[in-house]
Amino acid sequence: AHEVKNPLSSIKTISQVMKEELSPEDKNQEGLSLIIGEIDRLSRVVKQLLLFAKPHSSNWEKVDIEEVLKDVLLLLKHEASRLNVAIENIKCDDELILTTDKDGLSEIFFNIILNGIQALKDGGKVTISKSLKYNQENQTASGICIFVADNGHGISQEEQEKIFEPFYTTKQTGTGLGLSIVKNRLDKLKGFISVKNGNPGTIFEVFLPLST
Questions:
Q1: Which of 86, 122, 172, 211 is the most exposed place for a label (fewest CB within 10 A)?
Q2: Residue 141's beta-bridge partner residues?
Q3: DSSP code of residue 201
């Protein structure tokens, strides 16, 4: 991945300079735009490979789940609009604050919500909801549950069993690393993730403990 990353950066820079030097009507404008778009796609693949391979250094701090989700949804706004997907983020009445790794959490939410958006090939809706989970013995809050649901076609039982494996994907493009990265990050945060069919669609449930 490192060997690919630097040449890609050089190719993109040269392509952008060439594009800027041409007149807007030049017949090569379209081809150069395509090249730059493909370079960006390859760069995203390389980034995912590096994220999967390298150790993640945790920086623990007090985090508001709603604020993290707000920032992630801002980043995904364009992709959702491009694929005609509506996103509903249902606010929780309880305060959802815990001490955790904010960057790791952002990465987890980004990958899960992006997966939900990209599962809706013909448009649709992704709904995000949250709740506190309580300890049955003493009724104290033990953690936070975040649910990311789409109203797509759902996934088979066989796919559910493999979906968190590295390089497994049902999409025509992509590395199959997004959900594997999510599981790795959650393992470090002492949390877990599960998936089930939502009839229609798919529901991912993330659990984050209030203390680790």
A1: 172
A2: 134
A3: S
